[in-house]
Amino acid sequence: MLDVRRLRLLRELAHRGTIAAVAESLAFSPSAVSQQLSVLEREAGVPLLERTGRRVALTPAGRNLVRHAEAVLERLEQAGAELADARSGLAGPLRIGTYPSAARAIIPAALAALGREHPGLEPMVTEVDPAEVSALLRSGELDVALVHEYDFVPAEPAPGLATESLFTEAMYLAAPAPGTIADHRDSPWIVAPHGTLCHSMAVRACQATGYTPRIRHQIDDFGTVLALVAAGQGVALVPQLGVADAPLGVALSRLPMARRTRTAYRAGAARHPAVAAFVAALHTALPSDLRC
């Protein structure tokens, strides 16, 4: 009989690529991960890994087993959801991931609504870049999260996860005067830190008009970004949730592009009562101009 915990390790190796990354994500030592994967190979009776020096790759049999592992783990999530639904009342921690502008504009009202309906729940919010959400959900560090994508940075399907649409925002060019992205080929730009979706979006939006932006500042807080634009330090792309209370000296020009936000959770967890309750609270908390 194959051990589910070892199947989870194999699944994580398929997604993360190295034993060291699997060990770090699940708080194991690399040697413990290697040992457990070796036991799984003995249980399977066929080689699951190909080792070349320090590199490890999955064999065809290993990749096939990962597909079965995804299905098994999804069914276990469904079983956990049904068991939770059979209990009287919701209680205990609910680990929530969100990006900063949603954390400020939507999450407080959603938590207030959630608390009124389910006072026994203990929501625990962590700000996290959407690029990191998949790994945190699969490892169990998060139960549900808000993720976003841009027209120029579409989201890749994440094995083992499910998502549903929440809302769509307009995007704006923040500059000293009204204009378009094409008008600022020679302007300094203010973008999010390298490696974030927001950074990629700004760079690709400029490249779509024929140039690569000259980046001066890398800032992750839209309030600070707008203050820098007002101070003449550059121009920036800012989503609808980030443009509230723009300072004097900042012109906001709506662009033909959007940012879309979705809720994400482990496949099979959509009917978990705590996850469903939080998603319902999010819809209640949406500003009127973001509701479908």
From TrEMBL:
Domain HTH lysR-type: 2-59
Molecular function terms from GO: DNA binding; DNA-binding transcription factor activity
Keyword Zinc-finger: no
Gene3D superfamilies: Periplasmic binding protein-like II (3.40.190.10), Winged helix-like DNA-binding domain superfamily/Winged helix DNA-binding domain (1.10.10.10)
Tree of life domain: Bacteria
The entry's keywords: DNA-binding, Transcription, Transcription regulation
Signal peptide: none
Pfam families tied to this protein: HTH_1 (PF00126), LysR_substrate (PF03466)
Cellular component terms per the entry's GO annotation: protein-DNA complex
Family, as annotated: Belongs to the LysR transcriptional regulatory family.
Official protein name in the record: DNA-binding transcriptional LysR family regulator
Biological source species: Kitasatospora gansuensis
